[in-house]
Amino acid sequence: MSGKPRLTYFNGRGRMEPVRWLLAAAGVEFEEVFLETSEQYEKLIKDGVLMFQQVPLVEIDGMKMVQTRAILSYIAGKYNLYGKELKERALIDMYVEGITDLMQMILMFPFSPPEEKGKNLDSIKDKATTRYFPVFEKVLKQHGQDFLVGNKFSWADIQLIEAILAVEEKIPAVLSGFPQLQAFKIRVSNVPTIKKFLQPGSPRKPPPDQHYVETVLKVFKR
To answer: How far apart are CA 82 and CA 68, in angstroms?
Structure first.
């Protein structure tokens, strides 16, 4: 096995996509194993690899890590994307948790029944534009710096650019009332490692389609 982190998940975004973003932003190459059958998943459980019988699974530095938040904070700390002192880490944590709440709605959207999709999309738009994006617009405006915390590129910036792009895929004009976030999006998209990740052929996954949804349900036998 190479020294690259090894990611085990579905061939789609889901809970692994922020991990891919963070590793890519740190300039770290990784390998991926895609779950396609319930047998693969059950074997991981039987082998005792999944502590809580859940994926994502990331093998890194001799550890088999589960729980998305633990994985992300480890990677952020390892690659100097987690602030320079405790107060900055606390801010990054708060921002990341807020963005994760918004992303949870995006994550579940493909699994919602067709008759609920319109209502759920309206809810995503409402929460993005009235609860979450105004927070980051205000932060950027008040401190007048390029990045969210300590004027240094961090995990919080990576999570936010991922969220902005994910919401824009569904609601293209969602940033129309947020000039600071528009400028932030351009700025962060041009960070060399992020720019590379946004190019075709990168490990970034496309928006989830019906095949992805069916694969997830099949593996989990739902």
So the answer is: 16
